[in-house]
Amino acid sequence: SPLDLLFQAMESEISAAFDSGEPEDILSRAFKLTVTREDICTLQPLGWLNDRILNFYMGLLVERSKKEGYPAVYAFNTFFYSKLCSTSHKGVKKWTKGVDIFEHDVILVPIHLTTHWTLLVIDLREKTIKYFDSLGQKGDHICETVLKYLEEESRDKRNVELTASEWTLHSMGTEEIPQQDNGNDCGVFVCKFADFISRDKPIIFTPEHMPYFRRRMVWEIIHQQLL
């Protein structure tokens, strides 16, 4: 059937991305980022996703959110949180030059903790800050750091005081979100948490979906299009 042929074509394209050519070959370019074969190969089974893959995927989510029927999404890049921690608001003030993050519905903050990826999600509609960790660790202090950032950003950019007491901060528990069952998939979990959240969908995937998600992401990044 035509559908089978399509899947075969996609599969062979994904395999070729992993197997043929040089590590420095550029396979995709958008959002001021270039993705090389070496970057794409982090999506192979058991690979550790790198900053470029995370940031490119966040770019795809933001792009999709401009379509009718999706919440308006803003995504910080993977270097934002560590920079915020080391320099406070003044060190990242320019990162939002010409952007009012408060005009969005959802803000995604992918976070790199040495050898582990996690995700923080600000929902401006609900006034919630939620922390998603596929290893089940709590991130209450991370939520607090980001709330403080929001207060300073609001003051600085809009001259509006946020009322911290109106906000709910919550680290998602292991019974609320799926958990990884290996030491490699945290980056894929972060991308898929962000994918489902940016569509206002309940998070219903499981660790069994990870091999499929990895291959699918290869195709999506190469084609700059979410399936």
Description of the structure:
The structure is a single chain. The protein is 41% helix and 16% strand. By secondary structure, the protein is of the alpha/beta class. It has one domain: Adenoviral Proteinase, Chain. A hairpin with a 2-residue loop joins strand 1 and strand 2. It is globular and about 55 Å long.
How many strands appear in the DSSP assignment? Answer: 7
CATH architecture descriptor name: 3-Layer(aba) Sandwich
Total helices: the number is: 8
Order of helices and strands: HEEHHEHHEEEHEHH
Strand content: 15-25%
| Sheet with the most strands: spatial strand order | 3-4-5-6-7
CATH structural fold name:
Adenoviral Proteinase, Chain
- Counting structural domains, the number is 1
Name the CATH class.
Alpha Beta
Strand count, sense and barrel status of the largest sheet are: 5 strands, mixed
Shape: globular
In terms of structural class, how would the helical and strand content be classed?
Answer: alpha/beta
CATH superfamily: Adenoviral Proteinase, Chain A
Residue share in helix: 40-55%
Low-confidence stretches: none
**Rg over CA atoms:** 18 Å
Mean pLDDT: 94
